Amino acid sequence: MVKCPKRYIFVIVYVLVAALLSAQIVSGKKDIAVFRLSHSGYVPSEVAARIDQRIIDVVTSFKRFNVIGMEYRLNSNNIVSFIDQIKRMKEQRSEISETVLSGEEAFTRADWERLTGAFLVFAPRITDYDERLMFEETVVEGKKVIKKYWIVRIEGAISILDVSGSASERVIPLSVKKVAKRRSDAVDEAISSLISSVYTAIKFEPEFALASGVLAVDHENNTVTIELGKDIGINAGDEYILQKSISVAGKQSVKETGLLIISEVHDTFSVAKVIYADQPIVEGDSVKELLGSRILLQGYAGITVPITGVMTKDSKEFLRVQPTFGIRAVYKANFHLSISVGYEYAIQQPIGSSAVLSAKPMRLTPFGTGYLGIGVYNFYTSRFKITPELQFCFSGTSVAAQSNPAKTYTVTASQLGGRVLVSADYFISRNWTIGGSAGFGYMHNLLSPAQAAEKLKKESLFPQPELDKVNNYAWDVLSSHMNFHVFIGITRRF
Cα dihedral sign for 218, 494, 338, 204? Predict the structure, then answer.
């Protein structure tokens, strides 16, 4: 039996992994040529220059492109014919013509070779630019006042030309309109909105999605290492799908088999948590960036149980276990942080009790609770994601008093507070999760029943004899109180 030294085994394994990865498509930085802004009509030079630089900045920010800034500004009227000329030359594999070298926008032979050698060409253009000062007559405190404001409108498009292969073209329309008191503010907002559209077009373009291969699998920690890192703009929290090559009827294809979330990013590689995998993961498996907005929308239901407060002496008038319904939107900022906004409503009164409550000296109608939440950490185990969350809450209650059958007067009692919830979500698929949460909260009342009654009394809206009945409330909707919460919900990724 021939013994094989360990160093040779290592070399063989390395060569096999390298061979597997070579069969996969691993993204590298792509060359993108970006023309200066073209326009057919009047555009202020400082506006055009700012848009030029902002477009270069936003393309560069992705770190997955080598940006070639072209110093040429094509005329908007001939940009279409120029693109057609590139297409013909690519399709026919012909040499650069003298009409291009000596035309209206003359190119040096070196610049033309850089241009046609790029992966993509960005040709932004403005088809219509308008800014104007508007005047509006209005009445303020009985006096006529002339208000002025600026309107800035920009119409245009970006042509994205694939010059690496088929010379296909995609056109992304751009349209913004902003209004502000000052011209500078209107221009700033219009440019920012325009650049935001450019960013979105690049971010969610499938052709720009990164692809890589699995370098190593850590079964103990349920992680994989992939061949992409800071050098190409990967960030913690980015999501990737696992793929396996399959053959159907003699034709090659790929099948989605799992989901990864990037947890660590290094210079040239990254570590990802395996959320789920339908098939065993091996070195050389391909992964592809999952394009999405990182926005989740959740609908949920559950119960709210007041530990203190939210009750009267007559326990039939308020529920001790309150059915609760809510909706919230979540933005995943990165692997460890998420931000959410939501609204929920707890049913505090039994059905059919409104007549009883209306007979009280004050009728209380809760508006529901709005909140801002911060998820501080995500813990993944198999298909489960466990997230503790701190929420800052705001709620209000309408306090109504009826001085006579024809008139009803109200004041608003506000409550501020917070709660801590821990949620557990199960991945049904990469776009859907189902789960539940539980926790405790505290709401501090800013207006007690007695204070509400006193406020109504000062406004002569509430008679003194009725005011005394407010003391009949032992525990009350308006009191500061603690709650226990339990919810179940379903979440959709967008």
Answer: positive
Q: Give the mean pLDDT of 127-141.
A: 85
Alpha carbon separation from 238 to 66, 228, 428, 434 (Å, rounded): 21, 12, 19, 21
Nearest-5° angle of CA 355, CA 316, CA 369?
Answer: 80
Mapping DSSP to helix (H, G, I), strand (E, B) and coil, where does residue 311 land?
coil
Q: How many C-beta neighbours within 10 Å does residue 376 have? A: 11
> Pick from 268, 301, 271, 214: which is nearest to 487 by CA?
301
Rounded CA gap, 476 and 130, in Å?
Answer: 59
What are 259-303's pLDDT values in tens digits?
999 989 998 899 999 999 988 898 888 898 888 778 999 999 999
Residue 335, SS3 per DSSP: coil
The SS3 of residue 4 is: coil
Tell me the backbone φ, ψ of residue 28, rounded to 5 degrees: -120, 175
d(CA 243, CA 252): 13
Predicted confidence at residue 2, as pLDDT, reads 47
CATH number, span 295-493: 2.40.160.20
Q: Which helix (H) or strand (E) holds 339?
A: strand 338-346
Phi then psi for residue 338, to 5 deg, are -135, 150
Query: CATH 3.40.50: which residues of the chain?
Result: 30-207
Classify domain 30-207 by CATH number: 3.40.50
Contacts of residues 392-395 at CB distance under 8 Å and 24 or more positions apart, as own/partner, are 392/417, 392/418, 393/369, 393/417, 393/418, 393/419, 393/441, 393/443, 394/369, 394/370, 395/366, 395/367, 395/368, 395/369, 395/370, 395/443
For residue 444, give the amino acid letter: H
Which amino acid, one-letter code, is at 111?
D
Q: Which residue has the higher pLDDT, 443 or 81?
A: 443
Residue 381 and residue 414 in contact, taking contact as beta carbons nearer than 8 Å: no
What architecture is the 6-26+211-289 domain classified under in CATH? Beta Barrel (2.40)
Please tell me which of 43-47, 119-123, 239-243, 300-304 the model is most confident about, judged by mean pLDDT: 300-304
* Predicted confidence (pLDDT) at residue 1 exceeds the cutoff of 50: no
Q: Distance (Å, rounded) from C-alpha 423 to C-alpha 338? A: 13
pLDDT band for position 442 (50/70/90)? very high
Residues of the chain with CATH 2.40.10.410: 6-26+211-289
Tell me, what's the pLDDT at 164?
Answer: 64
- Amino acid of residue 368: G
